[in-house]
Write a structure and sequence with these properties.
Strand order of the largest sheet: 1-5-4-3-2
Number of helices: 4
Oligomer: single chain
Strand content: 15-25%
Helix content: 40-55%
Structural class: alpha+beta
Order of helices and strands: HEHEHHEEE
Number of strands: 5
Length: 165
């Protein structure tokens, strides 16, 4: 399925995020929120988006770290380990079901995590210039996460604020 518009991508992302929305690299609940923009996602835009996330999380303008660093990774660099970890957890739960120490219901969360990562990967893999950006500061436990890609003249993104101590 090829996406023709950014609004269709955002609609698809919202459907993926409806059932399960937890990013495995965070120590807290960090739901992704999709959006789109006609602006170019460059360093200034990433810092602006990150600033907005931090302020929504309770930071003040003065408390936002000045030493934030932006790094980028490919979809494969991030999604492959996340999916592999989720698959390992699913297998572990499956083994526990086989041993009689867990129920089929205990598989639900792990199965949803695998599906979540695969579906997100598939959506962004279809976009042009898909990347994952982290906005991090050595002096702060919060890390901005932005998954971006373009369709037509718009950039689609999913964003959240991770907690990493």
């Amino acid at each position: 399925m090829a996406f023709e518009t950014a609004s269709l991508v955002v609609k698809t992302l919202n459907a993926v995020l409806k059932d399960y929305n937890f990013w495995g690299q965070s120590e807290s609940d960090s739901p992704l929120k999709p959006g789109r923009t006609k602006a170019v996602i460059d360093s200034d835009k990433l810092l602006s988006l990150d600033r907005s996330l931090r302020i929504k999380a309770g930071a003040t303008s003065n408390s936002i770290p000045k030493d934030r660093i932006i790094t980028s990774k490919t979809l494969d660099e991030v999604f492959v380990p996340l999916a592999n970890n989720a698959i390992a957890e699913l297998k572990n739960q499956s083994d526990m079901v086989d041993a009689g120490t867990a129920t089929l219901e205990s598989l639900a969360s792990e199965a949803e995590a695998v599906e979540y990562y695969v579906q997100l990967y598939e959506v962004f893999k279809q976009l042009t210039d898909a990347k994952i950006w982290y906005v991090d500061s050595p002096s702060d436990a919060q890390v901005g996460l932005f998954i971006t890609g373009t369709v037509g003249s718009e950039t689609v993104y999913a964003q959240t604020l991770l907690i990493q101590t």
